[in-house]
Amino acid sequence: MSPDAPGNAAAPGPTRSSGQPFRLGILLSGRGSNFLAIDRSIREGRLTGVEIAVVVSNVADAPGLAAARDLGLNHALFVSRGRPRAEHDADVLAGLRTHRVDLVCLAGYMRLLSPDFIAAFRNRILNIHPSLLPAFPGLDAQTQAFEYGVKIAGCTVHFVDEHLDHGVIVLQRALPVLETDDAHSLAGRILAEEHMAYSEAIAGVASGEYEIVGRRYIKKSAR
After folding, report:
1. Can you say how many angstroms the Cα of residue 75 is from the centroid of all Cα atoms in its chain?
2. 5 sits in which H/E element
3. Does 134 sit behind a cis peptide bond, omega within 30 degrees of 0 on the bond before it?
4. Cα separation of 166 and 132, whole Å?
5. 3-class SS of residue 109
6. Cα(38)–Cα(205) distance, rounded to whole angstroms?
7. Backbone torsion region of residue 144, taken as left when φ is above 0, otherwise alpha when ψ lies between -120 and 50, otherwise beta
8. Are 95 and 78 in contact (CB under 8 A)?
9. Per-residue confidence (pLDDT) for residue 8, from 0 to 100
10. Full DSSP string of 22-53
11. Residues 121-155 pLDDT 10s
12. Strand, coil or helix: 88
C-alpha cells in the first residue's frame, strides 16, 4: 500500500523488540554532523533505547566515516563512484541486514536511493532536509529560502519514498529569518535545529507510537 494514498494507513514502520535496543544504520557521504549529533544524544542519555548499529559511507575519505571509526562504532565503506546504482545499493542493503538495522537514517548521504532499496526498508528510512518541505526541495535549500525572501525557515525530518524530498513528514522545526542573516548564517542556524530535530524524530519512530494516514504522521496519543 502506498504511503501517499489519501485516507489510507501506510504499511507499518519499524517496531522495537521487547528489551532490545532499536538499531540505527547511518548513511553519510561527508562530515556527518547530524550523525554526530545523534551519537551525542545517545551517549548523553537524551535518546534512550537506541543504538547505532553501523555507519556506512559511499565516500572513502568522508570525515563522518573517520569519526565513526574513532568512536569505536561499526562502520563500512561501499564506494559508489563508477558503479551502477542498483548494484551499489544491493551491497549497502546486505551490510545493513548483516548489522540487523531497524531504521536507516540518511545524514548527508549524497545519493538517490534505488526503488529496490526503498522497498526493502519501506517506512524505515528517515532523511533530514534543511527547509520546511514541501518548500525548497533539492540542493542548497537554505540559499533557495534566503534568496526567495522567506520570513520563516527551518528543517524537516521525513520518511524517504521514491521521490526527492517527498515522503511523509515526521517532524519540522521552524525559526525566523533575521534581518541580519545571510545565506551562510541562516544555514548555520538551521543546522542547529537539525541536530535537535533528528534525535526527536528518531525517538518518535522508535517508540512505534504513531500511525501514518495518507500523508500524515500521527502520534497515537494524539488520537
Report:
1. 17
2. none
3. yes
4. 11
5. coil
6. 14
7. alpha
8. yes
9. 41
10. EEEEEEESS--HHHHHHHHHHHTTSS-SEEEE
11. 999 999 999 999 999 999 999 999 999 999 999 99
12. helix
172-185 pLDDT, tens digit each: 999 999 999 999 99
Q: Which three cell numbers stand for residue 81?
A: 563512484
Of 173, 165, 172, give the one whose Cα is nearest residue 217.
172
Q: Please, what's the largest Cα pairwise distance for the chain?
A: 50
Q: Which residues are catalytic?
A: 129
Give the separation between CA 40 and CA 10, rounded to whole angstroms.
Answer: 31
Compute CA 131 distance to the chain's CA centroid, rounded to the nearest angstrom.
13
DSSP H or E run through 159: strand 152-159
Task: Let me know: does 127 contact 165? Beta carbons within 8 Å.
Answer: yes
Q: Please tell me whether residue 208 adopts helix, strand or coil conformation.
A: coil
This prediction has a pTM of 0.90
Strand ranges (E), 41-84: 50-57, 75-77
Handedness of CA 85, 129, 56, 103 (dihedral sign): negative
Name the amino acid, one letter, at 213.
V
Length of the chain in terms of residues written: 223
Q: Does the structure show a pLDDT above 50 at 110?
A: yes
Residue pair 199/37 in contact (Cβ under 8 Å)? The answer is: yes
pLDDT tens column, 53-106: 999 999 999 999 999 999 999 999 999 999 999 999 999 999 999 999 999 999
